[in-house]
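Why this split exists: single-chain examples teach little about how molecules sit against one another. For that reason, every record in the complexes split bundles all components of an assembly together and asks for one structure covering all of them. Below is a record exactly as it appears in the raw files.
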Amino acid sequence: MFANFDWDVIIRSLPYLFLDGMRFTIMLTLMATGAGIVIGTLLAMARLSNIPGLSHVAGAYVNLIRSMPLVLVIFWFYFLVPYIGQWITGASRPIQVGAFFSALVTFTLFEAAYFCEIMRAGIQSIPRGQVQAAQALGMTYWTAMGEIILPQAFRNMVPVLLTQTIILFQDTSLVYVISVTDFFGAASKVAQRDGRLVEMYLFAAAVYFVISLAASYWVRRLQTRIAIIR
Amino acid sequence: MSYNWNWGVFFQLSPDGTYTYLQLLLFGAGWTIATALLAWAIALSVGAIVGVIRTSPVPWLVRLGNAYVELFRNIPLLVQMFLWYFVLPELMPQAVGDWLKQSSNASFYNAVICLGLYTSARVAEQVKAGILSLRSGQRMAGLAMGLTLPQTYRYVLLPMAFRIILPPLSSEFLNIIKNSSVALTIGLIELTAAARSMSEFSFQVFEAFTGATLIYIIINIIVVAGMRWLERRVAVPGFISMGTPAAAH
């Protein structure tokens, strides 16, 4: 079965796969996670706020994004981002944006909807009495959120947020549909150029497997550590 | 915005000369639903078996089940699609490989199997959680009444476990519908692919994607309503459903 398995093609393309491909994947994952958590937390606060219009808008956004497949969302933003750029900058024609920026906007806004639901659960896990106590002490909404609620909510949700980040890491492979060279895109380019589909796809699968498995074990260990401290 | 909206495009004839763009999208939706339903059948049956053996008292079965779940959960769906579609036929004996590659609707069957097994690992996780959430007394009582272990699962543990995990299972079902869009990478013209090709032929990009988005939302609403009905239908009086919705997508 592996008689004519060509290991050499993997060795030869390692620099391309990791320095170009994996760097893109990791950068996209980390930046989209960071920005997604910030926007997701703001969305969660909006969903839980008493301002009726605001909570409805945030809720509608989250439900809309969550009912769409990621592939469709990638297509949406791929074509929409140039128009949004034109609208923001006031340019006369749709502005050109790079593949990385387009992918970053897509994944940030997509993941924000999922991070929103996680942070909403986190905020709701804090006993109501703490909010009332903060108000009784004369804290403003933002002080109470920033000093009391969010640090605890964030801490409670760290394992879930990290698990979602691992999912995001795997999902970034879907930028393949807009021909962006992430790790998997790089593997598939080499595979098609050298006619070595079996080697490259198996290698890519193995790399994703090892990274995701190691990360999820680490998250599980972290979870028990946090649980013991509390 | 310098974009020319034309909502009438849905009723224009597509380049194939027989069907309108709206019909193309609906055909795509049909493939999406067919893929999701068949894959769901695989996911539920395999997922139930793997979930059960992970709670069995046999250590090597538990390890096998755990390995299965880790394998399918830690490789991106897109990569799994490619492994099934491009790599598997190459690793088969020549005749089998050629037959796999040349069979009609190959991408459809590939998508169904790939999506089914991918989701089965997630279903197995839920089934295991459901069984473990039952009091251990239930298993002991079943065995004490003289039921064999398989009978205990069949008549005591699983009926309750499945009711408990119905909410997370319904969000897995929504996920399988959305995930079927990944099959466009291996050439299945499901809903997202249909919208993509409509946008390429008609140049009405945003109308095409709006159409697809609306169809996905409608499918979502129908599934959610159906699942709520099912939950009420199978509810055991005195038990409140206590599953937690999965964050995965």
